[in-house]
Specification:
Blueprint: H1 57-74, E1 78-85, E2 89-96, E3 111-113, H2 118-131, H3 156-160, H4 173-181, H5 189-197, H6 213-227, H7 231-240, E4 264-265, E5 274-275, H8 285-288, E6 291-293, H9 294-306, H10 312-318, E7 322-323, E8 329-331, E9 336-338, E10 341-348, E11 351-358, E12 363-369, H11 380-392
Antiparallel strand pairs: 1-2, 1-12, 3-6, 4-5, 7-8, 8-9, 9-10, 10-11, 11-12
Helix pairs in contact: 1-11, 2-6, 2-7, 5-6
């Protein structure tokens, strides 16, 4: 019997409500040896990369074993990990394969789709407009976008904090079917919003937390209306360039710069594993279409967590964390706190990522994978990040449990 996925498209790991039908066979996992690569180039934010053995042989060996163990157990084709701990050292690794057919090894210089990590860039752009005094977080969305259900009561703050009550368009069965029937199709923001708007709102604005990509697509439209520019252009000019993120981009379609790994998903109409590398991410837009690499995400983790690009007041608003209903995790404006680790993760068919910063130790962790196939109901990126933090920061363990509903 053919089964249609109901919800994991472009969702953050903890934040999805239900997953796909039971997991199909995972892509073949290689046993290629881990490779350490020194990333060249200076970092204007004082985080120069250092050799991977900077943490010492014993700790490095423990991390190698933990990462490879998770990769093998969960059937992850390839993993890229970057861990930077000032005063202690760094750990930069790639293990497994970038292509299950050719067995080309994973390397640390690859571009990957970062899914919902896009939200950190979109909300930063929104907060730049707040700092410019062109918008206010408590403005209703109806001031900027017509036709939003209950739009006069839903504020920009509600949208950025995932508390709008708007139905997530990625949960709509018709949307899922239309996307997976033709993953190369290009969607416009109004088209994806229409899938969500045909459903009743799920709760009153501000009543509770519910992760919804509908919220971030609407914020993208706000950015465009107020700035007079395409969202991608505004994000590039006001966020990516000032942050010196030269390997981060907002694609207009399915373009994917080289080098990049192949990406594998079972979010398909049949439930079988497919190569999703060239799927068009336009349906994710300002909620999840962006691409980046390890070096840029290393820089970005601290920038977004400490507010380098924003006024102190805007950053204070972003980091006002509210309960999500999921133990150990709270959510601010397009950013979360998971047991002290601040940042975001991403999941899009074929790829997953985690980019987080631990202020108490000024530590940065980046995890990049070329699959989004869950293992025993858990996101593979979460398994890798948890295994690493259990070793290096046992008092602050990154944990992304799936909700029960």
């Amino acid at each position: 019997m053919r089964r249609t996925p109901t919800r994991r498209l472009l969702a953050a790991a903890l934040l999805v409500g239900a997953v796909l039908a039971p997991m199909a066979a995972t892509p073949a996992a290689a046993t290629a040896a881990a490779t350490a690569v020194h990333l060249a180039g200076g970092d204007p934010y004082g985080q120069d990369d250092a050799p991977s053995d900077g943490l010492g042989r014993e700790l490095t060996a423990r991390l190698d074993k933990a990462v490879e163990g998770v990769r093998q157990e969960a059937g992850i084709p390839g993993v890229i990990v970057g861990l930077w701990m000032p005063g202690k050292g760094n750990y930069v690794r790639a293990t497994g394969v970038a292509d299950t057919a050719t067995r080309e090894p994973m390397t640390t210089d690859l571009y990957l789709r970062i899914g919902s990590e896009t939200k950190t860039f979109t909300v930063t752009a929104l907060l730049k407009l707040v700092d410019d005094r062109r918008i206010r977080l408590d403005d209703p969305i109806s001031r900027y976008v017509d036709g939003v259900p209950n739009g006069r009561r839903i504020t920009l703050r509600h949208l950025a904090g995932m508390r709008s009550g708007l139905f997530p368009y990625t949960e709509d069965p018709d949307f899922v079917h239309d996307l997976l029937s033709d993953p190369t199709r290009s969607f416009t923001p109004p088209e994806v919003l229409a899938y969500g708007f045909k459903h009743p709102n799920t709760f009153a604005p501000g009543a509770r937390f519910e992760y919804s990509n509908t919220n971030l697509v609407l914020l993208g439209l706000v950015i465009e209306k107020v700035s007079g520019q395409r969202a991608a252009d505004f994000i590039d000019k006001r966020v990516l360039r000032p942050a010196h993120l030269d390997h981060t981009l907002f694609p207009s379609g399915a373009e994917f710069p080289e080098p990049h790994p192949r990406g594998y998903t079972n979010q398909t109409l049949s439930g079988e594993v497919e190569d999703a590398t060239d799927w068009n991410p336009s349906w994710g837009w300002t909620a999840g279409a962006m691409i980046s690499n390890l070096h840029d995400l290393h820089r970005w983790a601290r920038i977004v967590a400490t507010g380098t690009l924003l006024s102190p007041e805007a950053q204070k608003q972003r980091l006002t964390m509210l309960p999500t209903g999921h133990p150990g995790t709270s959510y601010g404006l397009g950013i979360f706190d998971s047991d002290g680790w601040i940042g975001h993760n991403g999941s899009i068919p074929g790829y997953e990522s985690v980019t987080v910063y631990l202020p108490s130790k000024k530590a940065t962790l980046v995890v990049l994978l070329n699959t989004d196939i869950t293992y025993e109901g858990q996101e593979p990126s979460s398994l890798v990040a948890r295994a690493i933090t259990e070793i290096v920061t046992p008092d602050n363990v990154y944990d992304r449990p799936l909700p029960t509903r």
